[in-house]
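stuck on this chain:
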Amino acid sequence: MAMHLVNRLALVYVAGNLFLPLSVWAQEADEALPLIRVTEGQATREVSEILAPEPVERLTSDPSVSLSRMGGRGLDPVIRGQGQERVDVLLDGIRVEGACPNRMDPPTSRLSSALAPVLDVRTSNQTLRWGPIAGGQVVATTAAPDFQDDVTTGHVTLGASDNGNGKLANGSIATGSDRGWIRLAGGYDEADDYEDGDGNKVRSAYKNSEGRVDAAWKADNGFYVKGLVSRQEERDVKYAGSGMDAPKTDTDILRLELGAPVASGDWNLLAWQADVDHVMDNFSLRPATMKMLTASETRTRGLRLTLDQSPDAKTNWAIGTDFETNNWEAERFGGATLDTLTSVLWPDVDRDRLGFFAERFYRIMPSLQLGAGVRYDRVEMDAGSSDKTFGSGMMAQSAADIYTALYGTTNTEATDDNFSGFVTGDWRFSSRQSMEVTASRSVRSPGVTERYIASWSMMPAMRWVGNPALETEKHNKLELALPGRSDGWHWRPAVWIDQVDDFVLRTRNADQVSVYRNIDARLLGLEGELGWSNGTWSTASKLAAVRGENRDDDKALPQIPPVQFIQTLGWQKMGHQLELEWQVARRQDRVDLESGLDAGTSPGYGVLNLTGSHPLVEYLTLSWAVDNLFDNTWAPHVSRANTDPFSPEAVRVNEPGRTLRAALTARW
C-alpha cells in the first residue's frame, strides 16, 4: 500500500518488546491448540523493567492501538478506532473506573509500574466471562513471584530520562514458595515538562507513587487464596490538552480471590473494591483570573463467580455470574473563594450491573475447534442528585433542567437488558496454516458521562451535556484471520467489519453545545503481520487500517486513526539485545470537525526508536532507549487538541522530542 509521508518523526516507546527473547518467533506452534485462553489469576512470564512512565505505552508496538495524549500521564488507548467507554480495562480480572469526567485518569493509568503486568489486547469476543467486547479489551496480568528454589526473590530498578528530567525508582521483594508467599512492591516516578521536537515546552509534569502488598496460599487439596491491597497517589499532574490540571488523584484497591478444583475443573470467586478520589483545578499549577475547582470520586464494588470444566480432552465449558456496582459524583466550584457551585458534572450517578454467561468449546477433530457463548447483563442507572441546583439567582438550574431543555426527557432512570453472544471457529487446514473466524454481537450500555455529564457555562461552546435517553449500543462484528508459521516465519492477515446499531456519538448541536445522540455506524478494518527470526536476528512488519462511517449523516466518524505501519529489526546474543523500530502513519483527512473531537486533519509521520538491554553481571541489567531519534515534532491523530495558552502553536498535544532513557535493574 502506497503511503504519503511527511518529514515528521516522533517518539513511540517500545519497552514492551525491549526484553522479550527475539527468538520466540522461531518456535513452532504446538499441535494441540488451547481451548480457552484465560489469563486471570494464572502465573505468566515476568515482564522486564519498564522505562516509560506508564506501562500502557508498550501497546504502541501494535499498530491497531493508538494512544490519546492529554499530558504526561493518562494515556488513553484507542483500539481499532474505538476508545474511551468502548475499551474495557481489566487489572488482574477487576475493573477500576476513572474519577475524572474529562478522563485525566483513564483506567490504564492504574497499571503498576513497580510490577509491570503482561498486557493482552483483545479485539473480538472469544470469551464473555469479563463482559462483551465493543471496541477492545486490555487485560493486564501480574505474574506471581518466581522463587526458583529460593525463599526470597525481588528486584530494584533505578532509571532516568533527559527530556523532562524524568526519574524513577521501584522495587519488590517476596518471600515464601510456590505454595504460599507474600510480596511487597512500590515505586516512585516524576518528570518535569518535556520538550517537543521544536524545543517547545509541553505541559506534562507529574509525580506518581504507588505501594502494594499481595499474597497467596495454596492447600494440599488445591484450594487457594489470593489477596491484594494497593494505593496509588498522583500529584501535580499537568495537562496541555485541558483547561485544568490535577493536583491530586488517589486510588485504593482491595482484591480477594478464592478457588479450588472441583469435578473436572475448578471454581473461582473474585471480589474487589476500588475507590478513586480526584481533584482538578485551573489555578494550582497555572495562573488564573477566574478560579475553578472540580472534586470528583468514583466507588466500585464487584463480585465474580466462575466454574470451568474440562470433562474430556475435546471439551471445555464455563459458566459464571458477576455483579458490579458503581457510583460517580463530581461537582465544580467557582468564585473568589470557590464557594459557588457552578455545575453538578456527575449528579451522584449509580450503576448496578448483574451478568450471567455460558460458553463451550469443542474440538471436533485435531485440526478443527468450534466455540460459542452467550451473555446477559441487566444494567440499571440513575442520577440521584439530578435535581440539585447550581448557579444563583435567575441562572439557578439543575442537571435535570438541562436534560429536559436539550433532549426533552424528564426521566433520569435507565434500565438495559443486554444480550450478547459469539460463535468462533479455528481450523488448522495444514501444518503451517490455520483459519480463524469469529462472529459476535456485543451490547454496551452508555457510560456515566454519555448519559449524565452536566457541565454548564455561560458560553454555549463550553457546555457538555449527557443524554439519559440514549439507547444501548449494539456491535455486530465479523472477523476473519489466517495465521500461520513455518521455518522461522510467522504471519497473520486479518479483515473485520463492525456494524453498529445506535452508536453513541458525541457531537455539537446548532448552539455548539456538546451533546450525545444515537446513530448507525460501520467500522471496517484490515490488519497484517509478517515476521521472521533465526534466533539471533529478527524482523517484523505490522500494518493496521480502519475506516469509520457515520451512516446516518454519510460522513466519517470522529477520532479514527490513519493507516499505521510498524517495522522492527532486532538482534540478540548472549543476553544482549538491540532493536530498531520504525513507526509510520499516513495523514488523516477523514475527520468530523462538527463533533468537536477531531482537532482537524493530521499530517503523516515516521518515527525511529532504538532500544537495548545488556547484562552487566549475573544479577544486574542495563536497559536503555533513544526515542524519536531524529528529534522531530509530531502528535497522534487521536491526541487531544492543544489548549496550552503558553504554547499555542501546537494543534494537538505533541509527543516528546528526542529522549534518552536508561535504567539499571538488580534482580534476584
User: Anything to note?
Assistant: The chain is about 0% helix and 55% strand.
